[in-house]
Amino acid sequence: MTTNKFSLVAEASLDRHLFLAQTLAHGEALGGIPPEKADTLYQSIAAIAHKLITMKTTDLSDEAALRTQIHAAFTLTSLGLEYGSQGNLEKAVRVLLKTRVVKFFQIGNTLTGKLLGRARELLAHGVILPTDAFADMEAESIRIYTQAELDFLKALLTYKTTIRMPQVTIRDTQLPRALTRLAETDVIDRQLACIENRMHYVKTLPLENLFSLHPPLSIAPDAIQHLTLGLIVNLVLYRQIDFQLAADAREDFHQLAYVNGEIRPSLRQQLLDWIAHYLEQAHQSDAVKQYAVAYWDDCLRLEGREAAAEQAPSALQ
Length: 317
Description:
By secondary structure, the chain is mainly alpha-helical. 63% of the residues lie in helices and 4% in strands. The protein contains twelve helices and six strands. Helix 6 (101-125) runs antiparallel to helix 7 and helix 6 (101-125) runs parallel beside helix 8. It starts with a helix and ends in a 6-residue tail after the last helix.
């Protein structure tokens, strides 16, 4: 049975957190937007939603896909209005009254289009593929993003987000929520840059034998953190670039590098200087170098928890 797209649009409610909803409420409270004008604006957005459904939805029985396009019509119009009014409610009321609604939608679509394009690019290419030497081993590709980051990227394609602030690595999954304000697009832009910079950092490393590691990196909850830690441990213990992370080597590294869960300051600085110099030699941008240093620092901090647990006196003693 085909879903009635017209009824879905008619039933859609305006999220009160949207800047558009706040503008309408502000205008109505001041008498600047009469109810009939608000109805006309709503009908214009409904027309945009119908067009999006026609253009982007092939299966009219897929109610989730229909609702995504309806949500997009409201979200992008609201973001465009906020951009056009610089977030000022009084100005927003004025420009809303004298400007065609589709203009705000076009602005919002432009603002988010590049973000969605970057998300699609990461989903498609944010992996390390097996080299020809491992093609016959049915080795699985290695993702450069975590499961929580995968959730973030997928949510963005439906004009939603799972974060409130950019993070070196997204590790905790949050429920997707609708984009309501322009500031959230800046947070998304910075988070995408983090994942992109991590991809550039990883792909500068000598990865030829990466798929010979045991156990395979593809099964690690956070493959790139595991890869980075393996590199750090081998640099500290053996002065060589390698990614194999043996349990006994990891313990030796903890004993050498950490005191009460805190890495020795001099060793920390040596490691951060090493990756910065390595990426400098690889002609990576300052953004990639700065991110990689922050990423290594974050990995060292997280590994300190494991080291603290090992070094803590037994509760039974």
